[in-house]
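Let us work through a complete example step by step.
Step 1: write down the sequence.
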Amino acid sequence: PIYALPTTGGTIGGNLIITGTETVPTITAPASTALTLQANNGTTGLSLDTSGRPLTPTRPGFRAYLTSNTTFANGAVVVFDSVGGSGTGNFNTGSNYSTSTGIFTAPVAGVYTFSTCILWQGLAAGTQVDSQIQLNGAAQINFGRYMYQANYTGFGGYCEVRGNCILSLATGDAVKVINNSTSKTAYGADSAWTWFEIGRAHV
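Step 2: predict the structure and record it as tokens.
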């Protein structure tokens, strides 16, 4: 069925409720009118702007970074300790990433794309720079599976490693980045070098 909202505003029958067996009901609004869908608690989950473009302000996502040089032991979670900073582009929609534990907990089932970058520093020749993205403690992707060699895999004791993966998560699943080799120090002077983010969440 097609439900037409009054051109002067208001509701249908006091409250607009769509029920029934129809699989794709349609709501038609007057021209230049935005539509908003909210949960019972008033949280906006989906909006269409006046041009019909979908807006999803509660879609889970984050970009976190390391604020200072930090040493991580073999097997330790790499904790990206900030999601703030003016002009950095960092954020934490839904507060699902913990800056104290370094763990992202999925608030809803869906397909998530994760990306991370770590700039290891103070490396001696032959130091392993292997790192890992884990889901519920199980390895999903290893990245940087090589040794530091000056002028080959890095320069001046610095070596940058990057990892990307797409994961299908259930509600409550936990994703983290770990140092998967010998103890070493990550560079944390600004948000451009050592970071962890969701590139896209399809939920």
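Step 3: interpret the result. The CA atoms of residues 115 and 142 lie 12 Å apart.
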